[in-house]
Amino acid sequence: MGPLRKASALPETDGSDAPEVAAAFERVPVSQWRGAPVAVEDAVAVEVPCAFVVNGRPFAVMLASPSDLEDLALGFCRTEGIVSDAREFQGVEVVAETRGFSIYVSVPKARADAVAHRERAVAGRTGCGLCGERMLEDAVRAAPPVAGGGPFRISALQASVAAVEAAQALNRLTGAVHAAAWIDPSGAVQTIREDVGRHNALDKLIGALLKAKVDPSSGFAFVTSRASYEMVHKAATFGAPMLVAVSAPTALAVEMAQAAHVTLVGFARPGRHSVYTCAQRLID
């Protein structure tokens, strides 16, 4: 167990700030083939190990983009059940290390003790949110049912497809990151976060929304990835009434969404989408 670092107060945000992109990519020399070799510079996404330390106890290590790490900390703590709401998140300190970052989180002792058995023993990869879970019962946790939210117009859902693509600043540079966005009833992007890991992007978004005290019933979440069980679980834990994904859901994600009363939409593309659960929230 490491020493408990002094945690800074939770910073204020209005939830509308653009993601930090400067530290999340690097320019590297590459040789492109355009009929002949051409020497150019390319922007590549950065991924670094981020170690979460809760009240001095190591909890998890994951690979993430080095941007919006305080948002990641709050969202991760909420969706992992380390805190039950943002008021229990007492502070965070992000410390740059030689090869990555240590994220020191302060929460009430009772909350930290309650999840002590769920320490993740190995690094969570950027594509996996369940790596290293010691207990099978912790791998598939029930999500709270979501009440209210919507209805949302199909035209707004379709508008969000183009809006999210246009708002992905880091992905435009690198082509290698996922985004999670909060969409208002008109289909406009209110907040967006990007990361090499789809779970991290959604945790960053949820952290930003919690800091801004956004009402979960005021919009819906949009992710540029498949909709796995854990993506639905994170959205439901925040209270999002609808999760829209550009790719497919899994069977467990559909089951989770139905049980949590979340409207789950997959294959969201221009001019088409598929509604898997709770279709009553979408109207013409």
Task: Considering the chains and any ligands shown, give keywords for the structure.
26% helix, 8 helices, disordered N terminus, Cytidine Deaminase, domain 2, globular, 15 strands, 5-stranded mixed sheet, alpha/beta, 284 residues, 6-stranded mixed sheet
Helical stretch tally: 8
CATH architecture of the domain at 152-283: 3-Layer(aba) Sandwich
Query: Helix- and strand-based class?
Result: alpha/beta
On the 0 to 100 scale, the average pLDDT is 87
User: How far do the termini sit from each other?
Assistant: 55 Å
- What is the N-to-C order of secondary-structure elements (H for helix, E for strand)? EEEEHEEHEHEHHEEHEHEHEEE
Looking across the biggest beta sheet, what order are the strands in? 10-9-11-12-13-14
Low-confidence sequence ranges = 1-19
Q: Could you say which overall geometry the principal axes of the C-alpha atoms support?
A: globular
**Beta fraction:** 25-35%
The share of residues in helices is 25-40%
- Rg calc: 19 Å
Q: Summarize the main sheet.
A: 6 strands, mixed
Let me know the CATH homologous superfamily of the domain at 152-283: Cytidine Deaminase, domain 2
Q: Determine the oligomeric state from the structure.
A: single chain
| Annotated CATH topology of the domain at 152-283 | Cytidine Deaminase, domain 2
Q: Find the count of extended strands (DSSP E, 2+ residues).
A: 15
Reading off the top of the CATH hierarchy, the class of the domain at 152-283 is best stated as Alpha Beta
